UniProtKB/TrEMBL annotation:
UniProt protein name: (diamondback moth) hypothetical protein
Superkingdom assignment: Eukaryota
Source lineage: Eukaryota, Metazoa, Ecdysozoa, Arthropoda, Hexapoda
Keywords for the protein's UniProt record, in alphabetical order: Membrane, Transmembrane, Transmembrane helix
Region described as Disordered: spans on this chain: 1-21
Residue intervals passing through the bilayer: 39-60
């Protein structure tokens, strides 16, 4: 979905030529980077939620 907005694939360019594998290594690198960014973002969100829950539980136990 975001691939074309970031960088066009060689086969999408008007006069571009694809490599011997048909340009699939470009798609693979975008897929890997997308999955890596998604995993890191999800990890940050999950850790933030768990940190907030820890603060909430600590305040409730202290009172």
């Amino acid at each position: 979905m975001f691939k074309k907005a970031l960088r066009p694939r060689p086969m999408d360019l008007p006069n571009g030529t694809a490599n011997a594998t048909g340009g699939h290594d470009v798609d693979l690198s975008y897929a890997v980077m997308f999955q890596l960014r998604t995993a890191i973002l999800l990890l940050i969100v999950i850790m933030a939620v768990l940190g907030n829950l820890l603060v909430i539980v600590s305040v409730m136990r202290h009172r």
